[in-house]
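Most newcomers find our protein records easier to grasp once they have seen one. There is nothing in a record beyond a sequence line and a structure line. Getting from the letters to the tokens is the skill we practise here. An example says more than a description, so a record of this kind follows:
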Amino acid sequence: MSSSAEEMRVSHSTLVQLGRAVFRAVGVPDADADITSKSLVDADLRGVHSHGMQRLPWYVSRLQQGGTNVQPDVQVVEQGPSTGLIDGDGGLGQVVSHRAMQLAIQKSESNGIGCVAVRNSHHFGACGYWVRMAMPGRKIGIATTNGGCLMAPWGGRTPTTSNDPIGVAVPAGDLPPIVLDMATTIVAGGTLDLLARQGKKIPLDWALDREGQPTDDPASARQGLILPIGQHKGYGLTVVFEILAAVLSGANVGREVPPATAIHQPMNVGHYFQVIDISRFLPVEVFEQRVAGFIQQIKSAQRMPGTKEIFLPGEIEHRKEQQYRRHGIPLHPTVVDELNLLATRLKITAKLELM
């Protein structure tokens, strides 16, 4: 049953199973299908639906049309004691990123820090998923990536950069980790896609249409420009993250990246992953105590009128994950219908079970 007219509740395990079956049906190896499906559902679990299973049909189209390599030969092509460069062979971004983050973690354990750049990859989903891979080892995880052009240089009108996100995860002992996961645009492109599918409007300060005029239509925004956070400051962050993810790795940069609609073309986007071994600076327990103390300072700050609680980065997403694991992930009916139709088209008998 659905929880409201605007959403349906779906078991996260059912979503993972469907995603895994879909990827297998188009030739993705079992282990790679599992990695990619889990990463997409994790985004939905944390309420980041722009990077969740609503993107599954797009991934499948790219795999079927040759834009993404179904069975890539992911290789470490250069490495030093604390660095690595990976060529993803045009594979799914999640598959390549999993390998890269594992390598960064390994290098941090040996040398205190691990920095791994990636080229020849694709969209890797939610940034926060990869940085949280460092949490079991009680390390700090950092990641960024580039993609298709969504943003113009500040003062310009030509789309030249992606909304290069930044992800940082910091362990906090018994408290939930601090997890920053944000794009450098006011809104993610996937959110616009989701809102367009739902027939909803957007605020006029989010994006411009192709004529450079403010628009409340998410579909028109997708054809135009998404505006940066903090005006020129968000643009500045994007330039730096594009350099880390794409220039440093040898991936496509700026307008070299094909648009998302060119599903038959490899994107050759880049990623950058960094893992810091906290114990090389402080005993981990001391660090986590200090983080917890800082959290307490933040939480005890005097609140503005109308503010019931002050949240840390990633805290709202953490609470949603706990709730959605118990009561199901809320998905818009159009997303559920599209996923079931995709399963039917691929001759997968399993369908999403509603809670």
